[in-house]
Write the structure tokens for this entry.
Amino acid sequence: MPENFLHVVGGLTLILGLLALIYSLFCDRKRGVGLKITGILFLITLASLANSFWVYFAAIFIIATLVTELDFLQNLAAIIRGSKEYFEYKSAEGIRSKIDNEIKSQETFIDQTKMLMLENRETLVQEYLSIERKTFD
């Protein structure tokens, strides 16, 4: 007999996790989703049976990695840790990416200009040749 509600939740999620595992093993099309659901259910099982604040906290972060973007979780972890270095790194990374984008746009502009110059050169050569032919005719 379960001692409390958390043990009931742990038992139910364990059974659901095993069912999801069996389903994901036999269904090739949805194997990735099935394995993620299985992992989440097993994690909920372990967290509910552990009965510890830190395990609950870790479980929330682990499940959040499957649901949210990684940048959000990194920002949240940096806020919790009080890491100024992380935010300095992120701001420098943002500046670096802006510079890289500007360089790429300049390179694209230069390439387009070269193409236009080559096209204009071809046009000028054609015009010059047609003028030369007219003068010798």
User: Anything to note?
Assistant: The helical segments are 5-26, 31-50, 53-67, 70-81, 84-136. The mean pLDDT is 81. Residues 94 and 100 are 10 Å apart (CA to CA). Residues 1-67 form one domain.
